[in-house]
Amino acid sequence: MKKVIVKSQLVNPYALVKKLEDIGFEFEPAVWQHERIYLPHNFQPHMNFPRLVMRTEVLETNQPAQYSLYLKRHIEDSGVDYVNFTGVNDYTEATGIVHQLGFRKVAEMSRQRRILQLDAQTVIYWDTVEGIETPFIKIEADIVEGVSVEATRKELYRSLRLFGSETFLVQTYAEILVGNQVQPYYLPEE
Fold first, then answer.
1. Rg of the chain over CA atoms, in angstroms?
2. Overall average pLDDT of the 136-151 stretch
3. What value does the mean pLDDT take over residues 150-159?
4. pTM, entire model
5. H or E segment and range at residue 16
6. Is 48 left (phi over 0), alpha (psi -120 to 50) or beta?
7. What does the alpha-carbon distance between residue 17 and residue 161 come to, in Å, rounded to a whole number?
8. Which long-range contacts (CB under 8 A, 24 or more apart) does 147-153 make?
9. Which burial class, exposed, middle or buried, applies to 115 when counting CB atoms under 10 A from its CB (0-12, 13-18, 19+)?
10. Which residues, in sequence order, are bridge partners of residue 186?
């Protein structure tokens, strides 16, 4: 699935919740997610290489964990992300397959995630990442046929502004955790 994804650090997460509640939206209860991020052995930055991620997710503490594997490839030229998810029944076997395919684990990351489905194509995530003090807002939109990537991106930037954000991030949470400083970029003018 092709997506446009933008994220920003939340200066005041409770103001975001209030704004959304005022217009009739509410986040789902928090879920806990732990991800192991894998890169190909020949990975080079800015080469559009895929990442594989093994995700453990706990929706409720009295329920068993769920496992999934997803592939994510960010195409630098267009800013489009290709994302494919699949459920995993045997976590150990799946990670064995990932290693046999030539991927190496480069990071691990845990977070509390709250989800708000805005419409059929757009999801807002409120992420609190362990090891990073400030929470994040992340908005993902599926690319709809007939709507340009740039128009979709502008709409997401507009949403970030409505939520009080003036900057966005291109780094992954894992990149921030392994020592890369947060590098905010100012939202482009409309």
1. 17
2. 90
3. 90
4. 0.88
5. helix 13-22
6. left
7. 14
8. 149/4, 149/78, 149/79, 149/80, 152/4, 153/4, 153/6, 153/79
9. middle
10. 167
